[in-house]
């Protein structure tokens, strides 16, 4: 199958993967663009999972001020080496994540594991008292309640948001694509969002 440089370039722009990986993905999938995207995502996510336990002590702190200067975000994005921290792709990722936080009104935490236990407990208590669950057996009520609470709390976490840059991905998968592209573990250290007049 003859794969053109235009096809490779388009796939690279869509996924952020390396040129050789894009060519191989297209060859493996007989030039099918959508299948090649899925192939790279699966490969990238598998690669990202392997890197997720590595230490991330380098990185950058960057800011984003929304138009009108009424919303601002500071974010710490960590990687393994200073070399990757200086790369344009990494710095663009940090800025895009800051923009994502600025535009997401509900986001308060990075991931579900960052949500305090008392918040989980309070939401679970409310959910279990809902009318449609009162007559169900306790084990079923608990299972349904936990599922609903997790779904609700995901709306407060950055990693579970639909990515602004690629709505087909969650923010977590968007970061994992960059882990695959840059070859290092990438983690959000912390973020702070400022809204003018919010504390007045």
From TrEMBL:
Segments forming domain Translation elongation factor EFTs/EF1B dimerisation: 54-198
InterPro entries reported in the protein's UniProt record: EF-Ts_dimer_sf, Transl_elong_EFTs/EF1B, Transl_elong_EFTs/EF1B_dimer, Transl_elong_Ts_CS, UBA-like_sf
Cell compartments where the protein resides: Cytoplasm; Mitochondrion
Transmembrane segments: none
Pfam families: EF_TS (PF00889)
CDD domains in the cross-refs: UBA_EF-Ts
UniProt GO cellular component terms: mitochondrion
GO molecular function, one term: translation elongation factor activity
Main location: cytoplasm
Keywords from the UniProt entry: Cytoplasm, Elongation factor, Mitochondrion, Plastid, Protein biosynthesis
Annotated NCBIfam families: tsf
Entry function: Associates with the EF-Tu.GDP complex and induces the exchange of GDP to GTP. It remains bound to the aminoacyl-tRNA.EF-Tu.GTP complex up to the GTP hydrolysis stage on the ribosome.
Family: Belongs to the EF-Ts family.
PANTHER family membership: ELONGATION FACTOR TS, ELONGATION FACTOR TS, MITOCHONDRIAL
UniProt-recorded name of the protein: Elongation factor Ts, mitochondrial
Organism: Synura petersenii
Originating gene: tsf
């Amino acid at each position: 199958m003859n794969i053109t440089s235009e096809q490779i370039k388009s796939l690279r722009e869509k996924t952020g993967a390396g040129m050789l990986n894009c060519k191989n993905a297209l060859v493996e999938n007989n030039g099918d663009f959508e299948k090649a995207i899925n192939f790279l995502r699966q490969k990238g996510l598998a690669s990202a999972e392997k890197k997720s336990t590595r230490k991330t002590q380098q990185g950058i702190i960057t800011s984003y001020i929304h138009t009108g200067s009424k919303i601002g975000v500071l974010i710490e994005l960590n990687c393994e080496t200073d070399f990757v921290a200086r790369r344009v792709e990494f710095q663009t990722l940090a800025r895009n994540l800051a923009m994502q936080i600025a535009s997401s009104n509900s986001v308060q935490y990075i991931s579900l594991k960052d949500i305090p236990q008392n918040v989980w407990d309070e939401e679970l208590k409310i959910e279990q008292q809902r009318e449609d669950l009162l007559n169900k057996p306790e084990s079923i009520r608990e299972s349904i309640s936990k599922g609903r609470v997790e779904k609700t709390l995901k709306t407060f976490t950055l990693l579970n948001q639909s990515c602004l840059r690629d709505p087909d991905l969650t923010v977590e998968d968007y970061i994992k694509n960059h882990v695959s592209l840059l070859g290092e573990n990438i983690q959000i250290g912390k973020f702070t969002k400022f809204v003018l007049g919010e504390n007045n």
